[in-house]
Amino acid sequence: MSEKTLIILKPDCMKKNLAGTVLARFESAGLRIVACKMIRMTDALLREHYSHLVDKPFFGGLCDFMKECPVIVGVLQGENAIARVRELLGPTNSALAPAGTIRGDFGDKANITCNICHASDGAEAAAAEVARFFCENEIF
Ligand code: IDP
Ligand code: MG
């Protein structure tokens, strides 16, 4: 089934000049970019986007990290895109992510926060996250 999923190229990805490299991983896997823009994260957006983490002790640090520089948000489309993009990323902790995954190859193995790229973790999240960052007329 063709699905849409949201990705965010996080500040560590942008600072390491890896945006093109990471997008190429997705494109090489057959996923299509159907929306893409650069934005600066805000506290309001982050409180919504990471609502499952607001009570964690690391939430403040996560928000500071996500605001370090502008990020690229995008929507990828393809067969089973939601699960496939998560597989291409690897697990949250880059130190546990296998070589060949985006987080395993480019994430900071000494800092779990700096893991290069966000991706929606399920159908409900994908729909909410795409709508959070894009209007209908920005998705092609
Ligand atoms: P995910 O990005 O793999 O879906 P989530 O559990 O949704 O992982 O966490 C969102 C983001 O919060 C992670 O990608 C990472 O940047 C950060 N994060 C998650 N767990 C920790 C932690 O234990 N310490 C610091 N940052 C964390
Ligand atoms: Mg998540």
| Element order: H for helix, E for strand | EHHEHHEHHEH
How far apart the termini lie comes to 18 Å
Helix content: 25-40%
Report the total helices: 7
Sheet with most strands: strand arrangement: 2-3-1-4
Structural class: alpha+beta
Task: Report Rg.
Answer: 14 Å
The total strand number stands at 4
> What share of the residues does DSSP label as strand, in percent?
15-25%
Most strands sheet: 4 strands, antiparallel
| Highest CATH level, the class | Alpha Beta
Give the bound compounds: inosine-5'-diphosphate, magnesium ion
Q: Shape, please?
A: globular
Going by CATH, what is the homologous superfamily?
Nucleoside diphosphate kinase-like domain
Output the CATH topology. Answer: Alpha-Beta Plaits
Characterization of the model:
- The chain has seven helices and four strands, in the order E-H-H-E-H-H-E-H-H-E-H.
- The longest helix has 11 residues, at 123-133.
- The model has no long low-confidence stretch (mean pLDDT 98).
- The chain has one domain: Alpha-Beta Plaits, CATH 3.30.70.
- Helices cover 39% and strands 20% of the residues.
- The chain has helices at 11-15, 19-28, 43-49, 59-66, 81-89, 102-106, 123-133, and strands at residues 2-9, 32-39, 71-79, 117-119.
- It has a four-stranded antiparallel sheet, with helices on both faces.
- With 140 residues, it is α+β, with helices and mostly antiparallel strands.
- Bound molecules: inosine-5'-diphosphate (IDP) and magnesium ion (MG).
- Residues 53, 58, 62, 92, 112-113, 115, 118, 121 line the site of inosine-5'-diphosphate.
